[in-house]
Amino acid sequence: MSNVIQFNQIAGIRRFNGERLKTARIWRGLSAIQLAEITMLNRQTISMYENGKLENPEFSTIKKLSEALDFPIKFFLEDVKVELNDSSTYFRSLLTTNKKYRLEQEKKVQFISIVYNMLSDYLNFEKLNLPQISKTATPQEAAKLLRMHWNLGNKPIENIVYLAESNGLIVIDFETSTDDVDAFSHKIIADGTETYLIGYSRNKKTAARIHFDIAHELGHILLHNWNEDLEDIEKEDFKQIENEAHAFASAFLLPEKEFLEEVEPYAKNLAYYTELKRRWKTSIAAMIRRAKDLEIISSDDYSRLMRYMQKQGIRKIEPLDDELTTAEPSLLRQAINVLLDQKVFTPNDFLEELSTNFGLTLYPKDVENLLGLKKGTLSEEVNPKIEITIKNN
């Protein structure tokens, strides 16, 4: 008699979810070959599990995969219990980003969408506050409309993360093992309403780069089609989409009238842009490009300044990059903390709700990492202490 416990004996009507295996593998940055080596399974077997061509593996195999990937066993036996919006995900530099890194973030976005759906059952979030943009609007016109809609005037933007979150958008910073993924945006529908999630890499710490990345994604949100499969778009068409988002970001962060007045006196002086960067929290390279687009400097002037930046070694790491900072995303972190502080949930209750009612079972550390929570936020003592006090005689 075999001493191996069969999957269907312990899972009841549950079936092994091969897509979850693929998600866990991608999340941990492993190839099918690497996972096969760790688990001593055949690579083809791993692929067949992921593609649903092999069903109901033995429980010992599921346990082995669970331990190798550091995901709960239940994670592989469940399906999402909430309908997710199947929209495009716009990645900055999509044409040069390895597909496996994009897949990793897309999987995590799905899980953030599930958590946001759960949070929306308990909390009132700001409604999405964006203007209607004509399909014929230029990026520059869209940037002006958004500034007017958010009552920003033409002043520099001090904290674009707070600005986005206070107008109903979700902002996250994400971990990635590559510098190829700068930022992305994705549409989310929760509680019958839509919003957008904007993510930027934790590898970026300087305010200038974070501000431009978020502004770039705002350009996609306002200007582009969210039902289009970006994988099917021709290379030149996608370059056009990226250029439009880039032009929007530049016009949004550096409004024409005020920026022109400030940059014009010393527009050909590289050192002057460092001082402007302190005020506008936008990279020197982006400001020089904006000056060229506004015809304050010529194309020859632009090329000369770029060569000078290259010669000085400040193309990738600019002056003030280590000084100018901006606030971190706080919306999701605050949402979790409100529920915990108001004792709507204990950390364990929160994770159990996410698992039982939404079909997402994760270890605390992965939820913390996903939402940018402080380490230990969702961990509880295994043996909580009972309070004992001394009697008053």
Describe the structure.
The chain is α+β, with helices and mostly antiparallel strands and 393 residues long. Among the domains are: 7-77, 434 Repressor (Amino-terminal Domain), CATH 1.10.260.40; 89-252, no CATH class. It has 17 helices and four strands. It has helices at residues 7-11, 18-27, 32-39, 43-50, 59-69, 99-120, 139-149, 160-165, 207-223, 235-253, 256-263, 270-280, 284-293, 299-312, 331-341, 347-358, 364-371, and strands spanning 89-91, 170-174, 183-190, 193-201. Strands 1-3-4-2 form a four-stranded mixed β-sheet, sandwiched between helices. A hairpin with a 2-residue loop joins strand 3 (183-190) and strand 4. Helix 7 (139-149) crosses helix 10 and helix 13 packs antiparallel against helix 14 (299-312). The chain is globular and about 70 Å long. The termini are far apart. The model is unreliable at 1-13 (pLDDT under 50).
Secondary structure layout:
Elements: H1 7-11, H2 18-27, H3 32-39, H4 43-50, H5 59-69, E1 89-91, H6 99-120, H7 139-149, H8 160-165, E2 170-174, E3 183-190, E4 193-201, H9 207-223, H10 235-253, H11 256-263, H12 270-280, H13 284-293, H14 299-312, H15 331-341, H16 347-358, H17 364-371
Helix pairs in contact: 3-4, 7-10, 9-10, 13-14
Strand order of the largest sheet: 1-3-4-2
Number of strands: 4
Helix content: 40-55%
Judging from the principal axes of the Cα atoms, what is the shape? globular
Main β-sheet description? 4 strands, mixed
Give the mean pLDDT: 89
Tally of contiguous helical segments: 17
Low-confidence stretches: 1-13
Strand-pairing-aware structural class: alpha+beta
Radius of gyration: 24 Å
Which percent range describes the beta-strand content? 5-15%
What is the straight-line distance between the termini?
68 Å
Order of helices and strands: HHHHHEHHHEEEHHHHHHHHH
